[in-house]
Amino acid sequence: DCAWREKVMQGQVHDPNAWALGGVAGHAGIFGTVDATWSLLHRLWLAYKGLDRFFLSGTVRRFWKRSRRIPKTTRTLGWDTPTAHGSMAGKRFSLNTVGHLGFTGTSVWIDLSTDTLAVFLTNSVHPVVAGKKEKMQEIRPRVHDLIAKHSDTVVTDDDNAKGSQAFYGPSPAGTSVPLNNP
User: Fold this and answer.
1) Confidence category of residue 29, pLDDT binned at 50, 70, 90
2) In whole angstroms, what is the distance from residue 40 CA to residue 56 CA?
């Protein structure tokens, strides 16, 4: 329910900044089904790996490299990367991950170390925006941890660790990351 537009939004951009720019803005992400979104991410990932020419590999690699112009930034060109602690990507995606968070609670993450692609589409602003941020800070990391958990990202050879194991280090013997998922 958008107070500025005095109506319930349906089939239109929810992001107030994108709306102020006429409904189309680079930061606003994409609109589509989970299959269409996953297909786009998959094509980008294939281009990054040099396995597809739909997107130029060099361009994708440039857009997915952290900026060195701003010290300690997690940003790339139009994308984000996980923070060391409290990341919306959860605890199982490595620092070699790129992603994007959408205003309505959607998110996509691609772990370039483990080749894990995650698409989470939701509309946390319906019917109202109030409380959205807190809800998304709780659920996004849990969903992404579950996706990573079920994509065979656990590494048993600590000397050649990839993904979250390379960043967070091995768990003590016999333990795992508690998801507390009801």
Assistant:
1) low
2) 14
Question: Under a CB-based contact definition with an 8 Å cutoff, are residues 155 and 165 in contact?
Answer: yes
Confidence of residue 152 (pLDDT cuts 50, 70, 90): low
Instruction: Look up residue 102 and give its two tokens.
Output: 């959408």
List, in order, residues 6 or more apart from 18 with CB less than 8 Å away: 24, 25, 27, 28, 103
179 CB neighbour count, 10 Å cutoff:
15
Distance CA 12, CA 15 (A): 9
Which residues neighbour 67 within 8 Å (Cβ) at sequence distance 6 or greater? 73, 75, 76, 77
Whole-number Å distance between alpha carbons of 73 and 108? 19
Nearest to 86 by CA among 27, 136, 24, 37: 136
Sheet holding 116-120, edge to edge: 97-101, 107-111, 116-120
Predicted model pTM: 0.75
Per-residue model confidence as pLDDT tens digits over 92-116: 999 899 999 988 888 999 999 999 9
Distance in angstroms (rounded) separating the CA atoms of residues 93 and 149: 10
**Bigger pLDDT: 9 or 109?**
109
